[in-house]
Design a protein that fits this description.
The protein is mainly beta. The protein contains three helices and 21 strands. It has helices at residues 2-19, 22-25, 47-52; strands at 54-63, 68-77, 87-95, 107-114, 118-120, 127-129, 133-139, 142-148, 154-162, 167-173, 177-196, 199-215, 224-230, 235-243, 251-259, 262-267, 273-284, 287-298, 302-315, 326-341, 344-361.
Length: 367
């Protein structure tokens, strides 16, 4: 128990250190290219980080014409073979109803493969798991993903075309934890098909892709995430947050916004204001997961007001690669973007609405 409290204290101390270095952490001008989305594992990492290391590439879409939702992750774990738990896998979910869902559960894929079945490139996000599952990089803005579940019930072939510039957030405590989170496609167009048994859904909608890697002591920290975009409005938003351990309702976080070719970042570690408040909870096995959330965040120039409510919320079978129980959600969003002029906040893009994904996990902190 003392170790847990020590880790929490160390992590919070690291946040204070980062806050004092905001000029280093906050610029949103990083060059992010194909290599940024490539395989990132480096042998010889710190022992604890190597032991907990996971890496995964995640893709998600909601198709309003078919009223279906789909997400899929391609992952590898423990490549250092520290605990002889090295493995790769494909995990995802298909909701055959979202707006019209009346309690139907998604169709889950959770296929585990040997580590030796995994190959990946450092130069780009080309990944192969087993004989039938792959990410194929066509060019810097275009990916093709495909797969077949082991039971042959589900097949997918989808092409993603990036529409907004990537964003990246890094959390690190030397020798203890490291998490890199790259949203390579905050928004994209997607086309192709998803087949479940004898039903084929032809897809032509918008989508999202990110890539996460590192080591995260999952029994200490939760995972709160949201993404929403409206390509026709030149607007994309990606949010990451977590509850501060030992507090009741305090959260820190950050929001990346892509709007009219501008890059905007607002975050706690930038000394900006960030407020997150759950409004409704889903209780599963005695644990709480927010299904209705409001966020307000602002810096000296921009302010974002966001509210989102889950239409579906289900346990992600792959834990999003984090080793956590993560509830994957497709939520309805309403957002307003403001810019400060003098002492007044002026609406620059108002009442932006639509569907996106969100996630909420539960971390149980023992006393």
């Amino acid at each position: 128990m003392k170790k847990i409290k020590f880790l929490i204290t160390l992590f919070l101390f690291s946040l204070n250190v980062c806050v004092e270095c905001t000029t280093i952490n906050c610029p949103d001008n990083e060059t992010l290219n194909l290599e940024s989305d490539g395989y990132q594992y480096i042998r010889g990492k710190d022992p604890l980080i190597a032991a907990l290391y996971r890496e995964w590439w995640f893709f998600a879409l909601y198709d309003p014409l078919n009223d279906i939702g789909f997400c899929m992750g391609y992952s590898v774990a423990d490549p250092a073979k520290t605990f002889h738990l090295e493995a790769s896998g494909v995990a995802g979910m298909l909701w055959t109803k979202v707006q019209n869902n009346t309690g139907e559960n998604p169709i889950n894929v959770l296929d585990v493969y040997k580590y030796e079945d995994f190959t990946a490139y450092e130069q780009n996000a080309t990944v192969s798991i087993g004989a039938n599952n792959s990410i194929h990089v066509i060019n810097e803005k275009t990916y093709e993903i495909k797969g077949i579940s082991k039971d042959n019930d589900m097949k997918w072939l989808l092409t993603f075309q990036q529409q907004s510039y990537a964003c990246r957030q890094r959390e690190e405590v030397p020798d203890l934890l490291e998490l890199d989170w790259l949203s390579y496609m905050p928004s994209s167009y997607v086309s192709g098909y998803i087949q479940y048994k004898n039903t084929t859904y032809f897809i032509n909608t918008t989508a999202y892709h990110d890539h996460n890697y590192g080591a995260w002591p999952t029994n200490l920290f939760n995972w709160i995430w949201a993404q929403f975009h409206r390509i026709e409005d030149n607007f994309s938003l990606v949010l990451g947050s977590y509850h501060i351990p030992t507090t009741e309702d305090e959260y820190i976080g950050y929001v990346f916004i892509r709007w009219n070719n501008q890059r905007i970042k607002i975050g706690t570690l930038c000394l900006d204001t960030f407020h997150l408040k759950p409004l409704e909870w889903q209780i599963v096995d005695g644990r709480k997961y927010s299904i209705h959330t409001v966020v307000q965040a602002w810096n000296d120039r921009y302010k974002i007001s966001l509210e989102y409510k889950a239409r579906v919320s289900n346990d992600n079978p792959g834990g999003r690669g984090l080793g956590l129980k993560v509830f994957e959600q497709i939520s309805f969003y309403q957002a307003d973007l403001y810019e400060k002029q003098g002492d007044q906040w002026i609406v620059r893009q108002g009442n932006i609405t639509g569907y996106g994904f969100s996630e909420w996990s539960h971390a149980e902190i023992l006393e």
